[in-house]
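@here heads up, posting the sequence + SMILES for the zinc ion run so it's all in one place. Ping me if the SMILES looks off, I pulled it from an old spreadsheet.
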Amino acid sequence: MWKWNATHEEKEDYRELMRKKVEELSCSHEECEDYGENGKGNIVFVRKYGAGETQNLFKCKTCNKTFSWRKGTPLFGFILNEEKILNVIMCLVEGNGIRTTTRIMNVDKETVTRILKAFGEHMKAVYEYFMHDYHMEECQFDELWTFIRKKENNLSELEKLIAEFGDMWVGIGFDSINKVIASLVVGKRNEELIDKLVGGVKKVTDNHIPLFTSDGLRWYEKKILKHYGIQEKTVRTGKRGRPVKPKKMPHPDLKYAQVVKQYKKGKVAKVEFKVVFGNEKEGKKLIEKSPVSKHINTSFVERNNLTLRENNGRLSRKTLSFSKETEGLVNQLWLFMGYYHFVRPHGGLAIGVDAENGRKRWTKRTPFKAAGITNRIWTLRELVTFRIPPK
Ligand SMILES: [Zn+2]
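bot reply: prediction finished. Complex C-alpha cells:
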C-alpha cells in the first residue's frame, strides 16, 4: 500500500508492481487505435491520486492520454484498495453471506453490500455480452432449493449461497455437457418463474432445440410448449359460434423428458425418464447416452429432510423483506455466475491428454472455455475490470 509518507524505497517497490500490472491493462479511450487491447506495451504508470491516494493513474503512449485504472469498471467510486475488493468478492463467491464476509474481511456491512451490487451487476452485463446464439445440445432444468438440506460440507458454493437465504427458489437451465448455466431465475416458485426460466434459455441459444429434461413439476410442459411449440393451423369447423382457439403443437425437433424418481425410505430407489415430447424410444436412448442421467442420480437430495428447514434459524429467518432479500440473492448469484463461467476451472470439464510417461496430463477448463466462448481461463481481476465494448 502506498501511503503519503511512504519512503523512497516503498514507492520504488510500488512502481515495480505497477510495471507488471500494466501488462493486463489496455487504453480506455475509445478513439485510440489501441483501445481495449492489452499486452501492446503502450501503457505506463504515472502516479497515485485521489483521496488517500488509493487510485492509480496510467497513461497510454499511443494516444498520449491518461486514464484511471478504475474508470469504466465497477472499481470506480470505491476508495477501498483493489486487493481488498477482490478478496471480498472471492469471499462472497465462495458461498459466504454478507455477515460472514464482513467479519472475515473486516469491512463494514455497507461496503460489502455496495460491492455486491456494483460487481453483481457488472458480472451480469459481462455474462450477457458473451452469452448469445449459444449452441446447446442438452438443457437440464434444476430447482436448487431442494439442495439446501444436504450436509453442509457437501454443498457446492452455489448451494451454500442459496442456503444463506430464506424461502427463495432458484431455477437454472443448465447445459449438462459444458456446465454452462444458460438461464437463471430467482423468486417464489410459481408458473411465471418457470415461464421466465424456459424463455431465458430460448433467448440466449441458437436455432437448435436442445434435449430438455426436468423434474415432474407440471408447469414445465406448458412453458416448453409455449416457447418451443409451433402454432397449429386453424381448422374451420363449419359450425357457427366462436372459432376454435389455435393450439400450439410441439416442434418436430422438440424432445422433452421428465425425470421420475421413486423413493424408498427417503432415498432414491429408481430413476425413470418419462418422454413428454418426441419419440419415446429415441428420447430414452438419448438420455441414456447423456451426462444428465448420471448427474440426476448423484445430485439427489432427500426430500424428507426439507422439513428440517423450519427448525433451522438461519434458513427461516425473515428479517428482511422479500424483495430486498431477493435483490441481495440476485446480486450474489450474478457475482457467482461471473466467477463460475470465466474464472474457476470446473472439475468435471478437465480434459486428460496422454503424456509420455504413461500418465495423463490434465487441461483445466471453465464452462465458458469448454463452450468455446473464450479461449482461456480468466483471472478475477480481468473479469472485474473487463470493459464491455460499446455496441
Ligand atoms: Zn490510447
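MO: The first helix runs from residue 8 to 21.
MO: One more: The chain has three domains: 1-69, 81-130+312-391, 133-231+246-305.
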